Amino acid sequence: MRFISPAFQDVIAARQRRPAYRIYAWDPSQVAISEIASAPSNRHATIPVPFDLTPYASEITWSDRQLSFTLADPGDLFHPDTGPYRDHLKDAAIIRLVEGDEALDEEDWITTFTGQIHGQIGWKKGRRTGQTIAKVTVFNRGETQAFKRRKITSKEYTVGTDIGIALYDICETFMGLTPKEIRLTEVVGRQFKHKVNQLAQVTPWEGICSILEVVCYQPYFDGEGKLAYVNKNLNRHPDLVLSDYTTFVETEIPERTQDAINKVKVTFLDSNLERVDSPYQQLGTAQVTTGFFSMGETLECWWSSDHKQRASGTSMRVVKSVNSGLLPVGTESYRQMDEFHGVITVEINVWVPILATVCLAEYLILAHIMDKVAGGQPVACPPGGGIGGTLPFGMTIPWGRVLQAQALIGILLIMMSIGSAQYEVWGTPYDYAYLEKQSIAIEEGLDYWLENEKEIKNDFIGTHDQADTVAVTELIWEKSMSLPRRIVIEDHPALEPGDIVALPDGRKMVVTSLSKKIKRGEVVDLTLDGGKVLAA
Amino acid sequence: MSIRKVIDWAVEDKLSQKVGNIASPFYQLYDLDGQWMWACDVDLGDEEVLRCVPVASNNRELIYAEQGRSVTLSRLNNGKWVITGLAKSLKSTVHYIYLSFTEDLYRVTQKLLKGYYIRPLTYGELGTLVPPYGYGVLPYGAQGKFKADGTFVEIMEYY
């Protein structure tokens, strides 16, 4: 309900009203609607003095979404081309309806409508009737198409941020609202559950709708042009109790010809990343070419070519070992380095290059052992003197053998350097994913073919508890809307959409829309449309 | 049937993307156009699995997609679904809350957890689920489908 001053409340309670109203207009080129909605009063130093349309206005029809009236314009004051006051009724002109009582100062009155003209007003001068009239229709701020067409991408909000902060941010950044124009507190009491939260390529209105959906609120602009909300949770006390039928003019149960929603499905992303395993399988292969003079090889083995696949429980399967020959020449080991890759290490034993070196050295040395040849060979005198002799056989070292040995060593070196092995790494690949979960509120005993479902998809809901609440609240709300109620009572300026009115017989209705035809000096009939409240 | 329901169907038909889990190994499919293509079954979270869903060609993302992985499906102009990529979300279990309405009152009568999940079988399950029982009957890594309350449903296909 709107706040009304104690003096006004007393007047309403005493049923001694002398209703009065004012219709104010502002030139949109001088002031923005945001400044008007933020100003503490309609005649404040921060905003221009409004043009008062009240003396000219008649046939005023008011609803929470639209205000229309007729202006008598004998002086052609509002002619869209030539009227001196035409700027106050041009496209985007700001119009306000203020309602109160003649017994009260205007400070105690309340603003029941704030909106803008969209397009051009109608203006007509008739020769036969002699009348000059203008037809004006003003729309609530919620009808602003810029809020509902332009796609936006918001900042990122981290886990734990209150959703109210994101809401304020979007309202200020993309809708041009000031904090004074938002009737929600900045701390709503619900936090984002996901690591990163962002609105991408949605309209600002869709954005705030989806944010407020988490707490079962539905946004709308109130009479003062401020962002307010309808609380869809009907388990609350009535805002207005009508204890008797004194103020009742009419009561009606309207016809409804649509199937009622009987199932609400809320789909959301769980805020926790869940590990999803795939079947145990070969993750990768590795081949190594190593040798006696290489002390070892280290091979990296990734589970996917893009290095993004995760795996666990990995192990190495040796397809062809470096030890598949006669001698065990080395060791092969495997270690998983992280969730994306492992390392295969082949180490050649130290004795292998030593043995190879020793063998090669031995081969070279042995190449110098002399060969015997036919015929005698003179033996030189020893350095200390003496007589030389002649041996019965000759000895020689062929130059070619030494050179052959050197060539052979080279070939062996190359051959010994080459050795190959082949490995496979097996394991269980997995990845992390946000589980898409659902909460479904459904009427009991409903056959499958009778389900009339409404689906809500909201990624700002992060837990089953939140989703359960949204699903149940939405189903009860839909059920309530399928039982429409309409009452006509004496005007009560404090009532707003979302208010619950308790009727004298104990039943309750939730108000979804209000309308009335305003007349001078008369307590008008207020039509309340809504649904029957279902209690727990 | 109401206009609203008809509109709901129309909206549903217009949906161009879904998320599902791969529910079978990949196999080759001979489609109506006379072409061989890779396909698999996809679990959309309903009772029945969507069979023979082809993989969109030239999709490098799906190189290592395996059974149980979450994939996005896109609808072609002819109304058929094809697998077009990997998804970061995965169908999971569903909370059901049953309400009864009487006059001005409602009551939450029952809360249930429904749905299925697929996970690798434990060592204990590997030896006890399939006759003649004992280790070796099922390979390590075989996966099973379970109800949300943990009740075993079936063994998924395995190599």
Considering the chains and any ligands shown, give keywords for the structure.
A: 536 residues; alpha+beta; Phage tail protein beta-alpha-beta fold; 8 helices; B: 159 residues; OB fold (Dihydrolipoamide Acetyltransferase, E2P); 2 domains; six-stranded antiparallel beta sheet; three-stranded antiparallel beta sheet; 11 strands; flat
In short:
The complex is a heterodimer of chains A (536) and B (159). Chain A is built from eight helices and 32 strands.
Characterization of this structure:
The complex is a heterodimer of chains A (536) and B (159). Chain A has helices at 6-14, 33-38, 146-149, 163-174, 204-213, 351-366, 399-417, 464-481, and strands at 19-26, 51-52, 57-63, 66-72, 94-101, 110-117, 122-125, 132-140, 152-153, 157-158, 196-197, 200-202, 217-221, 227-231, 240-241, 248-252, 263-277, 281-290, 296-302, 310-320, 330-336, 341-348, 371-373, 377-379, 389-391, 394-396, 419-443, 453-457, 484-490, 500-502, 508-518, 525-532. Chain A is α+β, with helices and mostly antiparallel strands and 536 residues long. Among the domains of chain A are: 6-141, no CATH class; 145-232, Phage tail protein beta-alpha-beta fold. In chain A, strands 1, 2, 3, 4, 5, 6, 7, 8, 15, 16, 29, 30, 31 and 32 form a 14-stranded mixed β-sheet that branches. In chain A, strands 17, 18, 20, 27 and 28 form a 5-stranded mixed β-sheet that branches. In chain A, strand 13 (217-221) and strand 14 (227-231) form a beta hairpin. Chain A starts with 5 loop residues before the first helix and ends with a strand. The mean pLDDT of chain A is 87. The model of chain B has no long low-confidence stretch (mean pLDDT 78). In chain B, a hairpin with a 5-residue loop joins strand 2 and strand 3. Chain B folds into 2 domains: 3-86, OB fold (Dihydrolipoamide Acetyltransferase, E2P) (Beta Barrel); 94-155, no CATH class. Chain B starts with a helix and ends with a strand. Chain B has 2 helices and 11 strands. With 159 residues, chain B is mostly beta strands. In chain B, strands 1, 2, 3, 4, 5 and 6 form a 6-stranded antiparallel β-sheet that branches. A 3-stranded antiparallel β-sheet of chain B has the order 9-10-11, with no helix packed on it. Chain B has a two-stranded antiparallel ribbon with strand order 7-8. Chain B is 10% helix and 46% strand. Chains A and B meet through strand 17, strand 27 and helix 8 of A and helix 1, strand 7 and strand 8 of B. Strand 27 of chain A pairs parallel with strand 7 (89-102) of chain B, so a sheet runs across the interface.
